[in-house]
Amino acid sequence: MNWITNYVRPRINSIFSRREVPENLWSKCDDCGTMLFHRELSGNLNVCTSCGNHMPITPRERFAGLFDGGVFSEVDVPLPNPDPLHFRDQKKYPDRLRTAQKTTGEKEAMLVATGEIGRTPIVAAAQDFSFMAGSMGMYVGNAIIAAAETAVKLKRPLILFSAAGGARMQEGILSLMQMPRTTVAVQMLREAGLPYIVVLTHPTTGGVTASYAMLGDVHIAEPGALICFAGPRVIEQTIREKLPEGFQRAEYLLEHGMLDRVTPRTEMRDELITITRMLMGMPPAVRGDLPAPEASPPAPQPVKAETLPNEKPAKK
C-alpha cells in the first residue's frame, strides 16, 4: 500500500468481475440446434437462418412484419362469459386464463387487426399458440365473427393465420359450437364476394381444422407445419400401423391436393399481396415510389437595354 491508493482505486476487480448477461439474447433452433442471436432471429421473422426451421411467432410479431411499416389497428372483440361451466381440473379455469394473460400479455388466443399490405387494405386475424395452445373457445369464435363483419363492412379481404391444438376443453360444448358459428362467418364473406385466405401454421389441429381453417378460397401453409384433425400418434395407436414419412405435414398435404401453396414465412407477405390483389381485381402492387422530379430553375430572361436620362439613343 502506498499513498496513491488513497486517491485512485484499483480496477483489477472490475476488469475480471462477472458481467450480467441478459438471458434472452440467444435462442436455440429446435431442429438443427444452432444458437441464434435474438436480433438476427426476429429480423428473419423467427425463421432459423441455418436450416430454415419455422419457429413460433406471436400474432403481434407476425403483424409487425406483415403490414406496411408494421402499422395496424386492432379490432375490438366482444368478451364472452369468462367461466360459463365453472370448470376445474388441476386449476380453476379463470386461474388458467389469468396465467396465460400474464405470460403472453394478450387478452385471449386471437388478435384481429386492420391495415394495409403493399397498399392493399385487408383484415387479418391470427391465433396465438402460446395462449393455452391457441385453443378455440368462445372468444376465438367472437373474434372470427368480428373479423368477418369488419371485412364485409369495409369491403376488404380477410386473411387468417391459424395455429391451434383444437377446441378448448374448459368450455366443453360451447367451444364446439364455435365450429358452426365460424362457418356462418365465412359464408358471410362469400355472399359479399370477398376473398377469404387461410395461412395454416404449425400446428393446426382438431376442431379448428374441421371448421374455418379449411374453408378458405386459398390455402397456404408454412413449411413443415402439422395440419390434421387427429394427430399422427393417435392414428398410429388406432390402426396399429406405421405412418408414411412426413404424414400430415404441409408438404405431404400439398402433394395430395389439400393445399394450394407452401410458402416460407419470409416470402409470405409478397405472396399474400399478389394473391389478394388478383382476387380483388386490382392492378399489380407498386413495389416502390420513384422520387418526385426536382423543379428545374427558370430560364434566364433577356435583359432589355435601357437609356439613361442624359443619354441619347445610338443612331443606326
Relevant terms:
316 residues, alpha/beta, 2-enoyl-CoA Hydratase, Chain A, domain 1, 2 domains, seven-stranded mixed beta sheet, two-stranded antiparallel sheet, ATP binding
Can you describe what's shown?
The protein starts with 11 loop residues before the first helix and ends in a 37-residue tail after the last helix. A seven-stranded mixed β-sheet has the order 3-4-5-6-7-8-9, sandwiched between helices. A two-stranded antiparallel ribbon has the order 1-2. The protein is built from eleven helices and nine strands. It has two domains: 23-55, no CATH class; 56-280, Alpha-Beta Complex (2-enoyl-CoA Hydratase, Chain A, domain 1), CATH 3.90.226.10. The longest helix is centred in the middle third of the chain and has 17 residues, at 138-154. The chain has 316 residues and is an alpha/beta fold. Helix content is 31%, strand content 15%. It is an enzyme of class 2 (transferase). Its main location: cytoplasm. It is found in: Cytoplasm. Pathway: Lipid metabolism; malonyl-CoA biosynthesis; malonyl-CoA from acetyl-CoA: step 1/1.
Layout of secondary structure:
Layout lengths: L11 H5 L9 E3 L6 E3 H6 L15 H8 L6 E2 L18 H12 L5 E8 L2 E8 L10 H17 L3 E7 L8 H4 L1 H14 L4 E9 L1 H4 L8 E4 L10 H8 L10 H6 L5 E2 L2 H15 L37
Parallel strand pairs: 5-6, 6-7, 7-8, 8-9
Antiparallel strand pairs: 1-2, 3-4, 4-5
